[in-house]
Amino acid sequence: MFSAMGAEPRLRIVRLLLSAHPHGLVVGDIAGELGIVNSTLSHHLDKLKNEGLVNVRREGTFLWYSANTKALGELLGFLYAECCTRNKAIEPQQIVCCG
What we know:
Oligomer: single chain
Structural class: alpha+beta
């Protein structure tokens, strides 16, 4: 998962899909918003899908991509536990922000 999120275009894709949560976006909308050509976008979406970071559903002829918030939450939980509860490298108050 870290490898998949480590590429800047894939991080941009996940951020965009989170902003479109829960409905998601079709490939054409993602490409248009981020300026990524379809062949490259397809590669990035496949990587994210294979790592379980995005979900795909078919509606007619369209493939809708959405952020897998459960997997992303588990990833954040792991990072939080490792960095804030186990060794206190970062104080939890620095991560959790109040409005």
